[in-house]
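User: I'm putting together notes for a lab meeting next week and I want to include a structural view of one of the chains we've been expressing. I don't have a solved structure, so I'd like a prediction I can at least talk through. The sequence is below, exactly as it appears in our construct file.
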Amino acid sequence: MTRPLRIAMVAGEASGDLLGANLIAALKERLPNAHFMGIGGPKMLAQGLDSWWPQEKLAVMGLVEVLKHIKELSGIRKGLVKRLLTDPPDVFIGIDAPDFNLGLEKQLKAKGVPTVHYVSPSIWAWRPGRIKGIAKAVSHILCLLPFEPALYDAKGIANTYVGHPLADLIPLHVSQSEARFKLDLPPNAPIFALLPGSRTTELNFLADTFIATAKLIAEKLPGAIFLVPLATRETRLQFETALYHAGAQELAFRLLFGHAQDAMAAADTVLVASGTASLECALMKRPMVITYKVARLSAFLWRRMSISPWVGLPNILAHREVVPELLQEKATPENLAEALLTLQQDKDVRAAMVEEFERQHLLLRQNAAERAAGAVLKTLGIVPPPLAAAALATESASHGG
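Assistant: Thanks for the context. Below is the predicted structure for the 401-residue chain, given as structure tokens.
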């Protein structure tokens, strides 16, 4: 190479920031002089990404909610296309955020820029027709879930199953006692972790419900402690304001700045907003209840387009309801409190959940960042070195030897 490789990346939210950071680290081991630019969060910035816009600009959820920001999002995408085509990168990697990234990738691919999309859109859950657009947008797609490659093989779309990076990062066993000691929590108290989401739009719908749920639990379990990890200063202030308006300041809430995994590890039972956090909780082997709320019109449209009976990744991976899902109108404080209290007390159900979570962890533990980096190198026409022995051992264990 006469110049360092230029790798453009766009990640739209916190989970994508983690994927992007791990991928940059793996690529830098092989391409130490590569330059990374685009849009990312703090973890990607720490790995050296030159971020041209704040990641928060892309972190908008819901079909209807996106419409409110469509002008700004369209402006960012146009700006990215112009900048990237003026001085094209060697490869573009769109990390999740399919509604934003696939349109961007389509324009770049049409101009000869190789495109990799990291995280298959959930075409197995809703809008399966999107695969036609994906074929036009991507040179290669990286799949996190084991049943996804067959969908792309059937359409002749180049793909690689890389597993899920969280399964690599989270130990197979996480000590509850150590987590409680780290957070200065009593060893035998009933502890619930409440994860209402990482975005302000999610807290708009869930903060009040989570607080009301905690109040009901506290009536039945007066010694209960509620851990609430919040991703940003904005979401922390938002939750604190909701606590004040609910008159719940006297409850045993512990608001944490980040530390979501510590909160889950310390908890007996978790209430989690649907999304990557539900998989994270499964990998932590903590029994949970999944919930979510969006605007009514968004919920109506999603239901019309959905082909999966579940929204939570632990249930989708199991092909059955392992974890209770209480969504939209079913996500009342009364229903949530009852589900959490039942789960807190039912040892058999808890044990069955944990057993399934252990199976999923082994299935997803594939050394994802290394595999993803190898697929990117192949897209660049660079033959990657063989998988490290540790990666091969992980693969063997995941497939039963």
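A couple of points you could mention at the meeting. The first strand starts at residue 6 and ends at 11. Residues 61-67, 387-401 have pLDDT under 50 and may be disordered.

User: Perfect, that's what I needed.
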